[in-house]
Amino acid sequence: MENVEFKDRLDGSELSLKGPEHSKVGIILVHGLNGNRTDMEDLEHLFRARGLLVENILLPGHGTQVRDLLALGWQDWASALQQTVRAFKLHCDQVFLIGHSLGGALCLHIAAHEEVAGVIAMCAPLFMRSWMLPAIRMVRRITPLLPTLREDLSDAHARKHYTRNVYRWTPMASVESMLLYLPRLREELPQISVPVLVMAAQHDHVVPVRDGHEIYRLLGTRDKQLIILRNSYHVVMKDHDRVEVQERSLAFVQRFSSLDEPKIEQAR
């Protein structure tokens, strides 16, 4: 299948996509807050190898300078993802959303409002911890930024070789924006009727594993599955359970699409 580059966006702006001009199945990958495309690259390679149209998006305010993220929040990220979904629909019969952390929450939000084929949400926040929002509001009175935490990985080898070009500082306003939307997201989950795979990490130090259980409980769809990853921390795509994450992601897309039976080689 010949790969072509085309540009399309319903609001008149440009979205550059590389892949088959028309694909039965399209995959949109969405990283987390203060993340980048590197976080989702293994899944990107996995689905591209099957000839699918894949977009590993870079959320607004990311991948440039931290000051570009200061004034942005949930609505900016959700709008960017929505536009990408609508552009994909012009070239795909089915669109699947796969997101990690904030990206997973955004994918669930979009699935409540846009027609998609399915969602995979990995370590997505829904409640977080009760002290976080008051603490962030207090910190914002003193400083707009806090140092970015190191990657939450259990696998020491992966932590050593997993290089992320992320901001050294994290804007508190962006974190607050995400937290403020979570109550609305909880109201949206019962509206989701498409298949959803929820993955949560038992030992996640960023998003409590109970958030995965609550997402699963509140989802309106009958086609839902909850996987608890026992050997990983927050960055499950790079941690000990990364092969299981890939296998289950591919199997999910295969099950709810017209793809052939999945075959996967382990990513190292």
SSE diagram, text form:
Elements: E1 3-7, E2 16-20, E3 23-30, H1 41-48, E4 53-57, H2 74-89, E5 92-100, H3 102-111, E6 118-122, H4 132-140, E7 145-147, H5 156-161, E8 169-171, H6 172-188, E9 196-201, H7 209-218, E10 224-229, H8 242-255
Parallel strand pairs: 3-4, 3-5, 5-6, 6-9, 9-10
Antiparallel strand pairs: 1-2, 7-8
Helix pairs in contact: 2-3, 3-6, 4-6
GO molecular function, one term: carboxylic ester hydrolase activity
Keywords: Hydrolase
Pfam families: Hydrolase_4 (PF12146)
Characterize this entry briefly:
This is Esterase. The chain is of the alpha/beta class and 268 residues long. It has eight helices and ten strands.
Q: Number of helical segments?
A: 8
Please trace the helix and strand order, writing H or E for each element. EEEHEHEHEHEHEHEHEH
Strand order of the largest sheet: 4-3-5-6-9-10
Per CATH, the superfamily is Alpha/Beta hydrolase fold, catalytic domain
Q: Helicity range of the residues?
A: 25-40%
Determine the strand fraction and express it as a percent band: 15-25%
Number of E strands: 10
Radius of gyration: 18 Å
* Number of domain units: 1
- State the separation between the terminal residues, measured CA to CA: 27 Å
Poorly predicted residue ranges: 8-13, 262-268
CATH class: Alpha Beta
Domain Serine aminopeptidase S33: 24-240
GO cellular component, one term: membrane
Keywords: Hydrolase
Pfam families: Hydrolase_4
